[in-house]
Records
---
Amino acid sequence: MVDPVSDQPAGPDGMGIYIALGSNLGDREATIHAALRDLEEKVDIRVVRCSTLHETEPVGGPAGQGPYLNAVAQLDTGLSPRELLARLLEIERRHGRRRDVPNGPRTLDLDLLLFGGRVIDEDGLTVPHPRMWQRPFVMQPLEEICDAVTLAEQRRGR
Ligand code: ADP
Ligand code: MG
């Protein structure tokens, strides 16, 4: 049986692995920095670079929630996309993430944006992240750390 594409680690010449980080509850900056440290707590993920923090207004969800801090980080990892997503969700939970209100306020949101040029469309995992291209709060920090040619290629390959 062939492994699904989400179970295979990135090749050596992949186009880079990028995640989005967001927070609009509690000490947002401290949470994002803690999440970056958490990602590196085991040897199999390295944070290559991280954008600056961008303050943005919430999109959708209940009225009256506070602004977000958003960032994008490039990772280097031998994990597969599935394994990486599981790690992201585990770190969200550790920071008290609850999913009771759709688009509701969250201490921490971690999304897998791009995984070395891979196109994945499976239950519970879509890469490139389907809503990223329309979200300035993702694209602005991403453009700080990912070159325009790579982004255009990823977008075409979608
Ligand atoms: P959003 O981040 O779009 O506001 P949620 O964080 O509430 O939404 O939803 C995350 C769920 O979406 C996860 O449980 C995960 O299974 C699924 N999902 C699918 N593709 C991705 C991806 N590329 N990155 C993160 N989560 C994803
Ligand atoms: Mg999410």
---
Amino acid sequence: MLAIIGGSGLTQLPGLHISRREVVRTPYGMPSGALTFGQLDGHGIVFLARHGYGHTVPPHLVNYRANLWALHAQKVTHVLSIATVGGIHPDMRPGRLAVPDQIVDYTHGRETTYAEYGNGDPVTHHDFTWPYCDEMRQRCMAALAECGEDFVAGGVYGCVQGPRLETKAEIERMARDGCDMVGMTGMPEAYLAKELGLCYAAVAASVNWAAGRQDSALTISGDQIEATMAQIMERVRRVLLSVARL
Ligand code: HPA
């Protein structure tokens, strides 16, 4: 079964014919909200709003372990994350969608593993060379192509701590590091999915130029982000119908 984790701008999924909602408790605490089960274009899926249905959970306080555990416990095998990002690379203009293939993690202080160390269990190191599941990435890209989207087929997602936006110097450093886009929620989500054996990929939606990328005198306007987000999420919904079908 496919799960969709909706990010900022996608706290609900119009077009989803809801059959039930379920509050799932996990050994790691409560997920961001109830899991919503339903049919998308006739295909059964589960939807979860990463920041809660009222968008009240900031990126650094999302219980990523509980979210993915809850989905896994409901027999989810594939996860599509919708993530809003700021564009660093010139190709990542606001309004553009991308299917990143790499991650650089700048977060700190988040719970990053299900492994319980200190109780005698041996230390394990999961391979994370390719953070995203290729099968899910291909499915997303096929859906984007079907919808006529001029998307970017790859890219490095730099995950920052938030909730603040970055300084111009931080974005310049991220560009030197090879990051093409910046967001706040990609990690540890992608790694936890890997630990659980979930086939996980993200569709990133650029909703603004990252700090200093457009015109260094300009600051990032929340209103502008909201407007781009509203416009782009209409398109994302169409892509999701396609992903559910494929
Ligand atoms: N920075 C970090 N996260 C974001 C941004 C940004 O500019 N835009 C959307 N998510």
---
Amino acid sequence: SRTELARLDQQRHLETPLTVQSLIDGNVSTDEEIPAVNPANGEIIGKIYTATPADIETALAAAHPWAVPVSERADILLAAADLYEEAAATFFSLLATEAGKTIADCVGELREAVDFLRYYARNAVVTNPIAPMGIFTCISPWNFPLAIFTGQIAAALATGNGVLAKPAEQTPLIAAHAVKLLHRAGVPLNALQLVIGAGPKVGAALTSDPRVAGVSFTGSTATAKRIRKAMAEHMAPDAPLIAETGGINAMIVDSTALPEQAARDVTASAFQSAGQRCSALRCLYVQEDIAPAFLEMLKGVMDEQLLGDPWHLETDIGPVIDAAAKKTIDDHIAKAAAEGRLLKQVNVPSRGTFVGPALIRINGIEDLQQEIFGPVLHVATYKADDLDKVIANINGSGYGLTFGLHTRITSRVETVSAQVDVGNVYVNRNQIGAIVGSQPFGGEGLSGTGPKAGGPHYLSRFHSHPLEASL
Ligand code: NAD
């Protein structure tokens, strides 16, 4: 309601400017400082003290597994879930100001974070892990700064590990608030420490130390490869890396699809959250005979999208995370424009790091060498007889995160779903989202190691299995 929003708005202003530092079991230095920036308008909203090498050493030395019965850990994580829900207003204001999230995205993100806490707490009680690995480093991305950050930590803690949590450098304010609530619920400081700072410095140090028993990572495929290499050099040979990484995700719209529905689902899949979802649609294949009419309809739906302040309820699409991200995406679009392949781009507000949703013509997924993490949709057409070739090319990308299909041919749903090598298939709907507990999420190949997050097997990699090992 308007009253509720006004209250939230007031709270947002009360909360800033903010100062955060690492939450470590020992002294924390305030030597190195960087600003926190609101991507929607460029305003500085806070001050972040990043961890020095001495802070990192203090955290590593203090880190301790959470050695209490599983039922006690579960009760504390469930209490944290309740605290998260009570803190909804603060989380929404932080998510909107620090990460540029629209209100709809904020609501979905808090829901997912709370679901992760409750699901892993209950799942741990059922599976009763008796041998935690030790200390887990959890490294998270900025695009789900609350949900993914919390999910990784909750899984490691539920299984009795100690955690060193390294949030993305763009979103430490959100992470610090989450960790404070977990501590308030009863997680000991030495079992959960927050270490803030840049990936190549702090992240690298926390993934190349023999005191760390395993790493849970979500972020780009390139960073996952770097971490795997560092772990191989410095950590135990059997130390697990649980990685959830990028994707070049495709959707096929055939000539039997319902065009209006498909155009709306394509728009949401490619442009919601400014395309900053690992699951987002990057490469659309439209059957040749419907392509001209379908693309006109799609352009019309793109024009309806409202870009602006993420805090306004009517806003569909907010900014991209920062100036560096905007430059990478803008350069990609400019190159396509210079080559005559830019079919459409929506106008953007003049302030902040916005990128107008863009439609770019390509021949096929093989033209995309890397994930462009923003509101850019590449579109190719295909002939009815070439469907198998299209699927082979999609599989040939090496990634395998999400795939979408719009068709009214039932047998095609079955055959195509069986042929694509991806973690999550979406049929006649948008390609967004997963539901913790009932729709586990995760990719194959270059997109991740498994097991799927929010699924019944996820916790298995966070503890060793003494019975199996002794067989
Ligand atoms: P990123 O790889 O740049 O950074 C992710 C994290 O890794 C950050 O905390 C960063 O500080 C840290 N990091 C960077 N270099 C490091 C190093 N050398 N050692 C240790 N840590 C290091 O990714 P990003 O830009 O924050 O996030 C976007 C990416 O995440 C996209 O590729 C997206 O597809 C992917 N993602 C995947 C999933 C999934 O579930 N599969 C979910 C969300 C995001």
